[in-house]
Amino acid sequence: MANHIDLLNQSVQYLKAVGPKKIKLLQKLKIFTVKDLIYYFPRRYEDRSCFQPINKALQGTFQTIKGRVLTSGTRRLNRGRTIFQLAIGDSTGVIYGTWFNQPYLKKIFRVNDEVILYGKIERYGNLQISSPEYEILSKDFEDTIHTGRIVPIYPLTNNISQRYLRMIIKYCLDEHLGSVVEFLPEEIILKHKFLPLIAGILNIHFPDNFKMLSRAKQRLIFDEFFLLQTALGLKRQKIKTQTNGIKYRIRGDLLLNFKKLLPFQLTKSQKNVIEEIEQDMHCDQPMNRLLQGDVGSGKTVVSLWALLICVQNGFQAALMVPTEILAQQHYQTIQTFTASLGVRIGILKSSLKKAEKEKILFEIKEHQIDIIIGTHSLIQKNICFKKLGLVIVDEQHKFGVLQRANLQQKGCCCDVLVMTATPIPRTLAITVYGAMDVSTINEMPPGRIPVKTYWITEKKRQDMYDFLTRKMKNKNQVYVVYPLVEESEVMDLKAATKMYEHFKDVIFRNFKIGLLHGKMKSVDKKLIMESFKKGNLDMLVSTVVIEVGIDVSNASIMLIEHAERFGLSQLHQLRGRVGRGGEQAYCILLCEGKTQDAVKRLNAMVKTNDGFKIAEYDLLIRGPGEFFGSKQHGLPELKIGNILADAKLLRSARKESFAYLQNRSLVHANTQQLISLELKNRFGQNKDLFLVR
Ligand code: ADP
Ligand code: MG
């Protein structure tokens, strides 16, 4: 068996027709080994299996023609160009195949050869087919691969042709397919009527017919999902056997006093997830949990709960957020509770002066701070915790995997809670977040009135200004969001700064207007946010720095300029900034629907307020690859499976994988070994697969 694997892992350089130049090009396609080539799947297929009688070949259509070479010849054109032409005849007529600047073809075709051509039918006096794909039939070469069948079309790079790639893949399959070892247990294959692996691979490249192609896809997609689930499952099992986590005491004065301070009743959903978190923290395996909930569903208070349990047990906790503005806000929210509880909190910002920063670092190191809040500055190497017990990552979709992993290394077996405001269906979440447990807040705090969302065009700008004037007179606060800070000539966007001046001096000169953008100094940002929060500003003109997490309950109107420039999830996050008070809130999307996708996004925004639905639309519009950004999530790139489109196969793969993992001790050792070899082969390089831990 090891031998087989070695054969598959050998470099493609040993293949026929693969020289040093081609090797470089193949590497661009991430093809290094025989196995890479075998698993380099077509992007699409062309049905060239039916031969069209020449007299029925319609001009402008793509056709496959089979006939004999009647004449062959090369002509010189001006400027050294040549044209090579073949006359091909079948029993119904004659057609001319033409190729420019490929005089060598003269040596390839002989009169009377039986050939197949595939290409676009044209008519320049005669029927023609220019630069067709071709194949010469002969007795010793029975399989056609470029024509006369369902033909694979591969993703290419410069200087590699379909023809070449198809040819070496064919060589490779002829020579090495036999080394591919079936790893899927026979019961699974029989139960799902899957093709054997070898037949699957053969038919994904050179399908006998469309039925076989579809079966080949099924088999290979299942494999991909099954192996991914199994890798994640094994990782999970491994985590679950770790018993070196901190066993927190849940009951305690700190938590009791905190409950008394809470100005509202927790929702049922908040209570449920708190219970799940408490169970995690109480047991001796480290917590590894994802908390998902729509914007405004109240994740902050849940995280605070966990932070306090940690502190109550004499440990330090860290809360990591994507922006300084959000860090500042969390700091203030948390301080309103912790001030009277005697919990020491600190904020670490990249903008701190050297002395201030060193003081905080010292306090962290000496455990003079219990809860530290900060941006990614929290993961810098020079930060040492005395006794780190819990790490919470807010708005995790804004962080890369690596950043999260780094923070974790600060405390050996600390608990981890990551929070996200782009909730996705549970089945998907388990796959995408892999080894993590998933909790979901699925209700909003009571009394929220759904935000009314409107999509308007430039024609309505004046009406919109009138509306904002009325609302601001009425003490409603307004956010105005722009996609860019500075005017870009190319895109002709009205930048936040310019519009701010226009609003301040002209349109809304009787109101107090503030400006906030990412390039401002952090103290200035803080001052502006504070005065907006206090109600000293009627309007805040800003760039997307307010996108995540900002919580100002008396702001009730969100105007988004150039809404077509924002992604759907981002629009929903922005909208989530309003509607937090008891008043009717509005979200106004200003833009001309430019592209089809933009129109889809805006329609989705108008149609629903539900973050789960928004995420679903977003997934559909962008596709899972874009939506999750496989790098961000540490999810290995799927070659053929699509977690949305192939949801049914994903479900059955997960089921089989769970069953396999559960009964592993009963499964034949050989099968186990085959599966684990395959896992190593596919994911061995992928450290990120194993999210967080
Ligand atoms: P997110 O989940 O987007 O982080 P936040 O935690 O910022 O949401 O909460 C949004 C707002 O809802 C905050 O002002 C918070 O005080 C309030 N809130 C949270 N939970 C409740 C509740 N159970 N009842 C009433 N208001 C709540
Ligand atoms: Mg939040």
Give an overview of the whole structure.
- The strands form four sheets. The protein has a seven-stranded parallel beta sheet, sandwiched between helices. The chain has a six-stranded parallel beta sheet with strand order 16-21-20-17-19-18, with helices on both faces. Strands 2-3-4-6-5 form a five-stranded mixed β-barrel.
- The chain is α/β, with parallel strands linked by helices.
- It is globular.
- The longest helix is centred in the first third of the chain and has 32 residues, at 210-241.
- It has four domains: 2-43 and 175-209, no CATH class; 50-148, Nucleic acid-binding proteins (OB fold (Dihydrolipoamide Acetyltransferase, E2P), Beta Barrel), CATH 2.40.50.140; 253-441, P-loop containing nucleotide triphosphate hydrolases (Rossmann fold); 452-608, Rossmann fold (3-Layer(aba) Sandwich), CATH 3.40.50.300.
- Magnesium ion (MG) is lined by residues 299-300, 394, 549.
Please give the radius of gyration in angstroms: 32 Å
CATH class of the largest domain equals Alpha Beta
| Tally of structural domains | 4
At CATH level 2, the architecture of the largest domain is: 3-Layer(aba) Sandwich
Number of helices in the DSSP assignment: 23
Q: What's the total number of strands?
A: 21
Small molecules bound in the structure, each named once: adenosine-5'-diphosphate, magnesium ion
- What is the typical, i.e. mean, pLDDT? 86
Binned strand content: 15-25%
CATH topology grouping of the largest domain: Rossmann fold
Shape: globular
Helix % is 40-55%
Main sheet attributes: strand count, strand direction, barrel closure: 7 strands, parallel
Q: Pairing-aware structural class of the strands and helices?
A: alpha/beta
Biggest sheet: strand arrangement: 11-12-10-13-14-9-15
**CATH superfamily of the largest domain, called what?**
P-loop containing nucleotide triphosphate hydrolases
Poorly predicted segments: 489-493, 687-693
